[in-house]
Amino acid sequence: MAKHNPFFPEDFDSDLTDTDKFAKEHNQEHLLSTVEDYYSDADVEFHEEEDGRVWIVPTKYESLIDMYIRGKQPEGRCAEHQLYLRSTRIGLGDKYPGANWLSHYWYDRNLKIFVNLTRITDSSEDRILLIIGAGHVYLVQHFLEASGDYNLESPLKYLKTEDSN
Q: Between 112 and 135, where is the model more confident?
């Protein structure tokens, strides 16, 4: 007989339900984020293939440094995290597919990134340069700051745009 876990009720919805399918079946599609939502501040066009793959095509040239700077602005990271939080509302009654996905996949993944950073830190004098996808920045930064063990410094002040050269 399995021992009861006091942190989860016996009827805990541990299935990571397909949020897209659930939202479509229960008229909650407005809570789903689209690829366009994540690129609202970029000069891009979207082209969808017959198989559903979406290609993101720049409409004007942007240097890699300029793209990096644009992608790391704090207000953009907060807005992107809000898109993730919006998906947590997908569900009905005792079904929480959106919250399950966010907590069991996205938060879990970012907590492991944080833990891996703590495992490679040998001294308070260590410096770490983390190059990571923009979607991870908000949570990993929050975990590092909240731990009280790290002093974070934005790389943005070290980067020069083509306009400033």
A: 112
Q: Are 126 and 144 in contact (CB under 8 A)?
A: no
Whether residue 84 is contained in a domain is answered as: yes
Domain count, the chain: 1
Q: Is 137 exposed, middle or buried (0-12, 13-18, 19+ CB in 10 A)?
A: buried
Structure-token pair, residue 165: 């050269």
Q: Identify the band that residue 142 occupies on the pLDDT scale cut at 50, 70 and 90.
A: very high
Give SS3 for 80.
Answer: helix
Q: Name residue 48's beta-bridge partners.
A: 54
pLDDT at 52 over 90: no
Helix (H) or strand (E) holding 55: strand 54-58
Say if 64 falls within a structural domain. Answer: yes
78-128 pLDDT, tens digit each: 788 888 889 999 999 989 999 988 888 889 889 999 999 999 988 888 888
By CB atoms closer than 10 A (0-12, 13-18, 19+), residue 107 is middle
Domain that holds residue 98: 19-119+127-164
Which helix (H) or strand (E) element contains residue 84? helix 74-87
Residue 13 lies in a domain: no
d(CA 50, CA 156): 39
